[in-house]
Amino acid sequence: MEQKDRVEELLESLWIITVEGQKDKSDFGLLKDDEAVKDLIKRGYVYITENQLGLTDVGKAEAQKCIRRHRLAERLMTDVFVEKSELIHETSCKFEHLIHRDLEKSICTLLGHPKTCPHGKPIPPGSCCRGASKDYLKRIIMPLAELEVKRKGKVAYLQTGNRDVLQKMIAMGVLPKTEILLLQKFPSYVIQIGKSQFALDKEMASQIYVRQV
Amino acid sequence: MQFKKNHDGPIEHSLEIALERIAGLLHDRYPLSRRAVGLLLLQEDQEIQEMVKESQPAIMNQIETIVSGVKAHYAYPIDYEIALRRRDEVERIIKRVVKVKERSQGIAEKISVVMMHPVTGLPLLFLILYFGFYKFVGVFGVGTAVGYIEETIYDGYLNPILVKIFSAFLPWRILQDLMVGEYGILTLGLRYAVALILPIVAFFFLVFSVIEDTGYLPRLAMLIDRTFKKIGLSGRAVIPMVLGFGCATMATLVTRTLPTKRERLIATMLLALAVPCSAQLGVILALLGSHPKAMVLWTVIIMMVFLFIGFLTAKLLPGERPSFYIEIPPLRMPHLGNIFTKTYMRVKWYFLEILPLFLLASVLIWLGKLTRVFDFLILLLAKPVTMIGLPEQTAKVFLFGFFRRDYGAAGLYDLHKDGFLTGNQLLVACVALTLFLPCIAQFLMNLKERGWKTGVGISLFTLLVSFGIAFVVNLVLNKFGISL
């Protein structure tokens, strides 16, 4: 792993432990002589007191950006590329370091400014999310399960690695570009495609990502 | 199917090229065109793979190389990629030749909405169950029709005549017993089959066929999916389950339509344990008809056992949660001819299935009486039967239950007619009999469909649960001094 990547990973870990874990500092006994830690101190991102490592304000801002890129990358891998779940983390870990600032905005917009990563952890909002108007903040792409009743959506992609489920979707004709009208959500999801109606469960409805029409 | 001729990139290109290469390897003696066989090979269709392996074993290696090469190009399985292209092609054609006129919602669509809405759908389900099954099958079918056939025709005319004829022409007492005795082939076996069970089953299948042909079942599946997920099944299992209320043996055969082994096992077990078949149900409804409180309690207890045992099994059995989708066809007015054909076919299947068993049961009981094995078995059963608070005479009923569940219930019906049972005992007996062993036919079907270990296991389990629950029910009734 390159030094730069290592630094970013460390910032992310510190963010998770201190900001999300709501602690001030973190033990860093094992990392004492780590080159990356020295690098972070030199840049003024972290400070050391009583053998504990803490993020400075500048460091926090930088860590937030790293975590954002990491979780956006995970989202992208999960939502768009449909990798096997065990591959998502590994691929995202490498991919995040390649995301340029402008690319980050594009990805965020494409995904409809997602608020959480696939594991349900918060994605810190970027300038593109804050700058956008209220309407714009609505996700462009969302799971069918989150569409409102009586609304139409056009299938954007199917998020499933399960071939059986995929075959069921093919059987229903749920494929990218298919227009779906959501008729009801409870006790099962009922959709209309063309002149046909189908009932499906929430799990399947959550694996169909649609662009609201 | 012919894909667009202008391939718009190297990836699209590779699918079409691979198909051409595979088609080029195939000879043209397959029942499908070479292109169709090629498409199925690309999608790794097992049946076609076997067929080609048999016919042209030499080319299998080359085909595998081509297929795996194509697979490497795509993130999604090839069937998905092909489905995409097929859809595009269909859309291209449809756009040119089909005009769609929007039309407003008709009456059928409106009823469909009411059926599927959670607020109106559940009351409607109860109405259908109440009028279709309880009122029509239970009260009219069992009460009126069976009452007439059984009491007026059989007891009034047929049986006395039969007894007279056989007593006159068969001088031996033993043979008289076999034919027209208390458990005689004609007086018991044939009477149960023709006068009791046949009308009940015919009425049930008539209602079932009507419901089936309207397209209500997929809507029911959609309503019940959430509940069934809790017991490890999906909404699709509603079809074998509802059919189970007709004939659990037939329903066990239909569990084949369930997608996973786990679902099939859970469904088979619940069918054996807690789904009473129409004949049994009919007799039980007739029995409890005069005790409305006992009827309500019986329904609640059986439903609770169904859900609880299903819930437990789903927790204990490893495996994936089933996923559910079902097509909701438009509602249709059932076609009378179809309904009668279907009902006739099903009743015929059922009748031919049970008649020999009913007659055999009469012979076995006769043999058992002669050799005293029957008395011994009743003695053996007398203990557990009295433990759940029933008179010893009911041991006979449970022994009948081994042959057929409805046969047992029918025996109970006779016992009740003679005024042997109190309300409490009636409830306990009905609960025990409902949960009791699957009948011989269903037991054999379980063995055939699930293997002998599972089949025997299910039987032992239901035996244990039925007496266990009946014991508890009796205990609770006594403890709180409830008398029904």
What spatial form of chain B do the alpha-carbon principal axes imply? elongated
Note poorly predicted spans of chain B: 1-11
Question: Strand portion of chain A, in percent?
Answer: 15-25%
Total helical segments of chain A: 9
Order of helices and strands of chain B: HHHHHHHHHHHHHHHEHHHHHHH
Instruction: Report strand order across the widest sheet of chain A.
Output: 4-9-5-6-7-8
Greatest contact between two chains: A-B, 28 and 30 residues
Measured by DSSP, the beta-strand proportion of chain B falls in: under 5%
Explain what this protein looks like in three dimensions.
The complex is a heterodimer of chains A (213) and B (484). Chain A has helices spanning 3-20, 35-43, 57-81, 85-95, 101-110, 127-131, 134-137, 163-172, 202-207, and strands at residues 26-27, 46-49, 52-55, 141-143, 152-158, 179-184, 189-193, 196-200, 208-212. Chain A has 213 residues and is of the alpha+beta class. Chain A has two domains: 1-138, Arc Repressor Mutant, subunit A (Orthogonal Bundle); 141-212, Ferrous iron transport protein A (FeoA) (SH3 type barrels), CATH 2.30.30. Chain A has a six-stranded antiparallel sheet with strand order 4-9-5-6-7-8. In chain A, strands 1-3-2 form a three-stranded antiparallel sheet. In chain A, a hairpin with a 2-residue loop joins β7 and β8. Chain A starts with a helix and ends with a strand. In chain A, 33% of the residues are buried. Mean pLDDT of chain A is 81; it is low at 133-137. Chain B folds into two domains: 10-97, Helix Hairpins, CATH 1.10.287.1770; 118-479, no CATH class. In chain B, 77% of the residues lie in helices and 1% in strands. Chain B has helices spanning 10-25, 34-42, 46-55, 60-73, 78-97, 107-116, 118-169, 173-180, 185-214, 216-230, 238-244, 248-254, 261-273, 278-288, 292-316, 336-371, 373-387, 394-403, 405-417, 423-435, 440-450, 452-479; one strand spanning 325-328. The longest helix of chain B is centred in the N-terminal third of the chain and has 52 residues, at 118-169. The radius of gyration of chain B is 29 Å and the shape is elongated. The chains are: A alpha+beta (213), B mainly alpha (484). The interface between A and B is medium-sized, with 28 and 30 residues. β8 of chain A pairs antiparallel with β1 (325-328) of chain B, so a sheet runs across the interface.
